[in-house]
Amino acid sequence: MSLLVVGSVAFDAIETPFGKTDKIVGGAASYISLATSYFTKGTKLVAVVGEDFPQEFIETLQNRGVSTEGLQIKQGEKSFFWSGKYHTDMNSRDTLITELNVLGNFDPIIPESYQDCEFLMLGNLTPAVQQTVINRLTKRPKLIVMDTMNFWMEIALDDLKKTISMVDVLTINDEEARQLSGEYSLVKAAAKIQAMGPKYLIIKKGENGALLFHGKEVFFAPALPLEEVFDPTGAGDTFAGGFIGYLAKTGDISFENMKNAIIYGSAMASFCVEKFGTERIMDLKEDELQARIQQFQKLVKFGALSF
Ligand code: AMP
């Protein structure tokens, strides 16, 4: 089923305890659309880059079946740039630089051929732009999933809350859930955030897995214990891509199927962190993914419990 992905396509400079990169390709929508490409050949990208962005990466997306008709390339302008530094535990990071550049005045134009999309993934982006995308679709998609981050809570909270009220699923990390809700308890935070609009909430906890909330129900997916986490950048986006990609592939948006989808999201994210940037998720093999899904099953499977 067709799936529209919107979000930043960018340059990142990353510092982890294992090393440092110069400007490499990143951006929420880059990770998301690479991840969704393993589930559907119907991924359609809406994003903006400057003339400095490498054509080679755009071709990689196209070769993976992602439509880039909605990717605007702004001559004479620079791509979005983000730089972050991870702490030793790799679970937390500081943003060092955010240069909006082309994102500063991004007008998301939806090509006519994208109008039939049944799934919409609003990756991390200016909340007002995420909202414009929803408003420009002639038919509301079957499912709208949105990701965001603390940066937007700090500078565009009203727009952010309005956009959140329009989506079905929100994915954020634990610290952001606390910041958005003003509650320390994630259970209380989840209730408050669901009251803002989304019927489903995914709280990502890095190496501690992810929680899926729906009303009073909650489901937990662990993160795979990995010997080495090299670079967590994009893990949240890759997770979101795996999640919505699986839902789009199966066409089933029930809570039960969302449980499977967060396992697929977690499996995709476990690859992402193994190398810097998008490198590890550029060319995964189907059997690698299936083997990881089995590792997840083994990790949490136990027999009947009785006293
Ligand atoms: P994640 O590690 O999943 O939170 O996502 C990291 C990606 O988010 C990086 O590749 C950045 O380019 C992108 N990013 C960082 N800050 C922003 C922002 N304010 N808006 C949009 N994308 C961002």
Describe what this molecule looks like in 3D.
With 307 residues, the protein is α/β, with parallel strands linked by helices. Helix content is 36%, strand content 24%. The chain has ten helices and 14 strands. The protein has helices at 28-36, 55-63, 127-136, 150-155, 157-164, 174-181, 186-195, 235-250, 255-272, 286-300; strands at 3-6, 10-16, 19-20, 24-26, 43-50, 67-74, 80-86, 93-99, 119-122, 143-147, 169-173, 200-204, 210-214, 217-221. The strands form two sheets. A nine-stranded mixed β-sheet has the order 6-5-1-9-10-11-12-13-14, with helices on both faces. Strands 2, 3, 4, 7 and 8 form a five-stranded mixed β-sheet that branches. Helix 3 links the parallel strand 9 and strand 10 (143-147). Helix 6 packs across helix 7 (186-195) and helix 8 packs across helix 9. The longest helix has 18 residues, at 255-272. The chain is globular, with a radius of gyration of 18 Å. Residues 8, 10, 12, 26-28, 82, 98, 124-125, 149, 151, 233-237 line the site of adenosine monophosphate (AMP).
